[in-house]
């Protein structure tokens, strides 16, 4: 059956590329078409990976791979998972070759599973399941006897377009316990532990334990609750677009988390507006990829944002002229362009999942019927290896970043991305009526962050239009109070002697203006960077008096999209 072969290939590719399972099952761009249902494929691959430490031990000690030469280690893992851990067992007829190959060893496998459970101090399989689901599994050969707890909670944004924080706390989370610190959520020892923490920086955001699942709830399925990393909420909140201020462009909008967050903030300001500008502006959401445009449209409708969001499907932001009629009232832009994705934490990574493979040369007896034999001294027969996956490339021909990249290869990739990001930022700065821009990446590299910011400030369009950074003291309160700021060393390196091309850069001001999130820090976020740009009223009048702005910079093609939202929202992945 294709499900098991495809799940095995997913696990092989995950190990080879050191990438997340979700990115393989649900790629940002159309790639391989799976024969199996993607939802079932993702579930099996993720669960088999999560259990692989135990299952690798069970399969290896059973000696099954020494007998069943048609089974690869990963194929044996996924089949053994369903044999013992799936409610319906192996989804194949009993006479099917794969089912028969594993089921004939069921007694031995069951005995090894019992031993593996007892070695981990679990009296029942359910007790072992809880440990596995919460990352608290202890390997039998772990000298420390422990494993670090997950560092990432599940962040849930209350979608105020459809509900309110108070309503959800009194309904969906009525039986849950409020805790005062995020650390208590991070230390949750069971996925059944119903606790939550209300975030102190982003309004309408709560954290729940990593293993908690709300995706089956009515509130999630109807768009009232949205899974969105805390860091991903920074851009819309920092932009803080208010009613009556004009239109907003979301330049790289899909899949739509930031877009709908923008819409919710705008809608709330309309309710509070006392100036008579209750209708405010609209959000122009641009997405050039066809498939991702469809996802964006679905997300906007599910979140109840269709009245305020105008989805411009198949619209490349760099081809949207700043002087176009649709852009005449654009006063704010949110820019979250393609980046290296080095800050992204996938659900499999944040749960501490590593795919473990069973040994094909067990130290214990191999089962042949009712007799046991020691393996012979001859070299064991190895199962057929899966072919190495083809290496994808970006539109510029650069391979995606990986842990095996050389310094030169990574530097070339970052330089390519930074050039594109700078051009996109310069294009945004050319909109005549714009007075606010927020730029963000899910990257930890200064080349895509502080260095791009400084280059943008030194650009001709920034000087002509009067752009500067949004100072820390001017930021909305939650962002002003965020402690982790820009990298001083990176700023000093890019600034050089402090003045270039007639532009002086204040290092201290720039460091404090930038916000960063640690990928594996105590704040429970992915790696992220965000900064705001503003134009003062006097500068706007001067630039508009000189012809209404500059000509848009030359367009460049976008590299592959590794935006953070793809790792955050799973509503349509299923």
UniProtKB/TrEMBL annotation:
Q: Which GO terms describe its molecular function?
A: RNA binding; RNA methyltransferase activity
The yes or no answer to whether the keyword DNA-binding is present is no
Annotated Gene3D superfamilies: Sun protein, domain 3, Vaccinia Virus protein VP39
Keywords (alphabetical) are: Methyltransferase, RNA-binding, S-adenosyl-L-methionine, Transferase
PROSITE patterns under this entry?
Answer: SAM_MT_RSMB_NOP (PS51686)
Span list, region Disordered: 358-405, 542-574
List where Acidic residues composition bias occurs: 559-568
Query: Which top-level group of life is the source organism from?
Result: Eukaryota
Q: Where is the SAM-dependent MTase RsmB/NOP-type domain?
A: 144-536
Q: Does Methyltransferase appear among the keywords? A: yes
**InterPro entries tied to this protein:** MeTrfase_RsmB-F_NOP2_cat, MeTrfase_RsmB-F_NOP2_dom, NSUN5_7_fdxn-like, NSUN5_RCM1_N, RCMT, SAM-dependent_MTases_sf
- What name appears for this protein in its UniProt entry? SAM-dependent MTase RsmB/NOP-type domain-containing protein
Query: Which organism's genome codes for this protein?
Result: Friedmanniomyces endolithicus
Q: What is the lineage of its organism?
A: Eukaryota, Fungi, Dikarya, Ascomycota, Pezizomycotina
